[in-house]
Amino acid sequence: MPLHDLEIRHLAALVAVADEGTFARAATALGYTQSAVSQQIAALEKAVGLPVFDRPRGPRPAELTPAGRLLLTHARRTLAGVDAAAEELDRLRRGVTGRLVIGTFQSVSSEILPGVVGRMRTEAPEVDIGLFETDDQSALVEGLLADELDLAFTVDVGDEDRISSELLGYDPFVVLVRAGEAPGAVATPADLSDHPLIGQPTGNVCQLLIDARLADAGIRPDYVFRSQDNGAVQGMVRSGMGRAIMPLLAIDPDDPGIEVLRLEPPIPPRTIQLSRRAGRSLPPAADRFAEIAREVGAEVLQPQPVAAL
User: Fold this and answer.
1) What is the architecture of the domain spanning 173-263?
2) Is omega for the bond preceding 253 within 30 degrees of 0, making it cis?
3) 28 contacts: CB under 8 Å, gap ≥ 6
4) What is the pLDDT of residues 63-85, one digit of tens each?
5) Could you count the other beta carbons within 10 Å of the beta carbon of residue 197?
6) What residues contact residue 49 under an 8 Å CB cut-off, 6+ apart?
7) Closest CA to 104 of 82, 129, 83, 69
8) Whole-model pTM?
């Protein structure tokens, strides 16, 4: 048997005999028979091509040969490495260690992700979590497909063979107006058509959803200002520059400078998802992250696709 074909059990037998002094005591320590230990040492010596123990007669302990002493150092190091690997794998299996890279976008980063990351830090502080934020959803999908992201929060990702998406909940669209200018608790398509609007850039995935839904509702929006920043959009509404249609998750409803109205008839809400590359094995910590995301999503998002406050 070549040396590189040695098995862990051969090295374990060497260490046990060296530590226990006799083949009989080594067998007891390992839970083997004495003959099994003898066979493992014999196989080891055959692979080495030299004896590793001198076997004196009588009660005297087995003595390491020079080859045995040399090999024992490597055997201890190898077994220690195996034990360390077993411990690390156990921690990985239990989801308490590892690294996750999560893709996210602005409103999720503000309202959902803090709760998820906070609980992960409490439950598994040794899991290293990296975050990548962008409002360009195509970059999130590309990151998943390139295995640069383990998981990503997405919006309305359709059927995609390469991406597996789990629904976390629904985020309704609402209308923002400056405080004191609301005609009531409800805004109509006519109200939006008659007022300038504040929006986000035309390529923004949320803005694309809004414009498609407005077109389906027969609304022709007149945008007078666009910003990628949700706070800036709300700030312009507060200033009286115009009204805005935004996802509920993206606004600060406690802002005294604005009023939040529901749209009647409502337009379909956006779906908030947690996506991953289909067929890719992720660290077990990713499964716990997904579980917590579902729980936090249930607290923040609507369980049914109704556009109401």
Assistant:
1) 3-Layer(aba) Sandwich (3.40)
2) no
3) 20
4) 899 888 889 889 899 888 887 77
5) 25
6) none
7) 129
8) 0.71
